[in-house]
Amino acid sequence: MRVLMVAPPGAGKGTQGAVIAAHFDIPHIATGDLLREHVARQTELGRAVQHHLDRGELVPDEIVLDIVRDAFEQARRRGGGYVLDGMPRNLAQARALYQIGLDLGMTANVALHLRADDDELVRRLLARAALEHRADDTEPVIRKRLALYHEVTHPIVAWYAERGILVTVDAMRPVERVGRQILTALEAMRSLVDHVPESARRPIDLTGLGAAFGSAD
Ligand code: AMP
Question: Is 58 exposed, middle or buried (0-12, 13-18, 19+ CB in 10 A)?
Fold first, then answer.
C-alpha cells in the first residue's frame, strides 16, 4: 500500500500515519520529523532549514524532494509500500513527487485527505504546544501555517480527485474513530488498487458518513 496524506497542521497526520504504517507494515515517512531531526543534529541541512521551520514557512522544494527520494529508495528496498506524511505541500511538489514515483515505480495508490476546521486545529496545536514545546506551535506561527495550508497545500486535493485516488476523511472526530475509519477505507481501497485503474475511479468522500461509522464502532 502506498499512501500520501494531505492535511492541515493539527489534523493528526503524525498519529494516523503511524496507525497506517503499523497496520500495513510499511515505513512512515514524515518530512517534518526528518527535517526536525536534521535541525536537532545541527547537520548542514538542519542549519539551512531551521529558520524556515521556526517561522512556519515551507522549506525549499529541492531540499524536501531530495529527502523524500532517499526515503523512497529505502522504502523500495523494504517492499515498496509507504505512508508519506507532510508531503506534498504545494502543486509543484505534488508533480515532482509523481515523477519520483514514476521513476521508482512507486506512485501513490491513495491520497488521504484529513479534513478539519481551523478553530479545532488551533485548539489542538496549542494543546500540543504545551506538551511538546515545538518552536512552530505558538499561536502566530500556527495561524501562519494554517493560512499557508489553505493557500498552497489545499488546492492539491482537487488534483488528486482528478487522478481518482482521493479519499477524504473527517478528522474532527475522536482520534481512535478517525483511525478506524481510515483503515476501513484503505482496506476497501486495497482491492480497488489491484483491480480498477485510477482513471476509472471516483474520489471517495467519507465525511458525510459520521452516523454510519459512529454506530458501527
Ligand atoms: P509538519 O511536521 O509536517 O507540520 O512540518 C513542520 C515544518 O517542516 C513545516 O512547517 C515546514 O517548515 C517543514 N516542512 C515539512 N514538510 C515540508 C514540505 N513537504 N515542504 C516544505 N516544508 C516542509
Answer: middle
What's the CA-to-centroid distance between 127 and ligand 1, angstroms? Answer: 19
Distance CA 121, CA 11 (A): 6
Enumerate the domain spans of the chain.
2-30+80-209
Question: What is the whole-number distance in angstroms between the Cα of residue 32 and the centre of ligand 1?
Answer: 5
User: Which residue, among 8, 214, 29, has the nearest Cα to 124 in the 3D structure?
Assistant: 8
Tens-binned pLDDT, residue by residue, of the chain (217 aa): 999 999 999 999 999 999 999 999 999 999 999 999 999 999 999 999 999 999 989 999 999 999 999 999 999 999 999 999 999 999 999 999 999 999 999 999 999 999 999 999 999 999 988 888 777 888 899 999 999 999 999 999 999 999 889 999 999 999 999 999 999 999 988 877 777 777 777 777 888 765 444 444 4
Its CATH class, for the domain covering 2-30+80-209, is alpha beta
Residue 87 CA: nearest ligand 1 atom is 19
Measuring from each residue's beta carbon to the nearest atom of ligand 1, which residues come in under 6 Å?
Answer: 9, 31-32, 35, 52-53, 56-59, 64, 86-87, 89, 93, 136, 145
